[in-house]
Amino acid sequence: MKKELARVIFIGMVLFISASSCKKGDTGLAGTPGTDGKDGKDGNANISMYTFGERTFSGNTDFVLENISQAKIDSSLILVYYNPSLESATAWYAAPGLGSTAAYHTRFVIFQTQTSPSTYTLRLFLMNPAVTAPYANSIGFRKTRIIIAPASSIHTSGRKKNNDETSIFSDYYETLRYFNLEE
Predict the structure, then answer these.
(1) Residue 4: pLDDT over 70
(2) Phi/psi at 34 (5° precision)
(3) C-beta atoms surrounding 92 within 10 Å
(4) Residues 6 or more apart from 11 whose CB is under 8 A from it?
(5) CA pair distance 43, 26, nearest whole angstrom
(6) What is the DSSP code string of 129-179?
(7) How many other C-beta atoms lie within 10 A of the C-beta of residue 149?
């Protein structure tokens, strides 16, 4: 017991002497400079967001996208979000996907309806999730947003090597943050 106590006291004294004998040293080498937001990763400045107001429909509804080229449509990620009227104003659902209370399933198709000026229509379908039939009840949407994000690079193989960024974009707010878009 005395031997253990002596050892603890000895270690404590060594630590105290070591700590008290330290002096402020020379200035170290400068670290690697950080980024100030100006030198960060390049973004994609050509993203478009189309916003549509209230509408009530059953089966399907069309959203007209004007002044958009076929090249942009063909090389872009197209994301659709909607806010059902019976939900909170901050509740956003992604299409395709199950709707509010899983009562319906959404799908969409986009096609060119006019060539000069180039106009596309995004048709949003409401489907019965139990069968492959249109959803017969009327649904109200408070708002609908369509985001068109052109690819920064296109690879014919369909995959980018060493891609460390994976996202599904099923969350409306996460998508806004990812593309630096405002509400």
Answers:
(1) no
(2) -85, 180
(3) 20
(4) none
(5) 41
(6) TTSSSB--S-EEEEEEEEEEEE-S---TTSS-TT--------SHHHHHHHT
(7) 20
What long-range pairs does 170-174 form, CB within 8 A, spacing at least 24? 170/94, 170/97, 171/92, 171/94, 172/81, 172/92, 172/93, 172/94, 172/145, 173/92
| Tokens coding 114 | 């006019």
pLDDT in tens, 83-115: 999 999 999 999 999 998 889 999 999 999 999
Q: Cα separation of 126 and 105, whole Å?
A: 6
Average pLDDT over residues 36-55: 75
Q: Report whether 50 contacts 182 (CB < 8 A).
A: no
Residues 67 and 118 sit within 8 Å (Cβ to Cβ): yes
In the numeric block, which tokens belong to residue 8?
């603890």
pTM for this model (two decimals): 0.64
Is there a cis peptide before residue 84, judged by omega within 30 degrees of 0? no
